[in-house]
Amino acid sequence: MPIYEYRCQKCRRRFSIFWRTFSDVDTAPVTCQHCGADTVTRMVSRIRVLRSEDSRMEDMADPSAWGGLDESDPKSMGRFMRKMVNEMGDEAGDLGPEFGEVIDRLESGQDPDQIEKDMPDLAGDAGGGPGDLDF
Question: Is this structure's pTM higher than 0.85?
C-alpha cells in the first residue's frame, strides 16, 4: 500500500496520499488536499535506511565525515560531539546529562579548560584531574 507525496502547482503546498493499491496511483484523479486544484506534481519521497550499529560506527570513525573539524575551535568540537551523540542514538543515554551540558557549552564557544574547571567530576571514577579530558 503505497504513500505518495505531491506538490500543488497552484498553492505550492505539499501533501501525501495513501493509496490502497498500486493501480489506483495511475488511474485515480489527484487533487490538492489544501486548495482542491488538480494541477499537482508527484514528488520523490524521502526514504529512511535502517543501518546496523557496526555500519554507523564505521562511518563515525571515517575522518572525511567529520565535516571540517577544527580541534582548536570549541564550537567546532561541540558540533562534532553533538553529531556523534546523534549517531549513537540510544547508546548516548549512557553518557549522562553532564555530557549534554559540555556539548551545549562548547557550542556556545566556551573554553574547554574553563568547562573542565567548572565541572571537576566530569572524569568520573577515571581519576582524571585538570587537563585530563581531551575536548
Answer: no
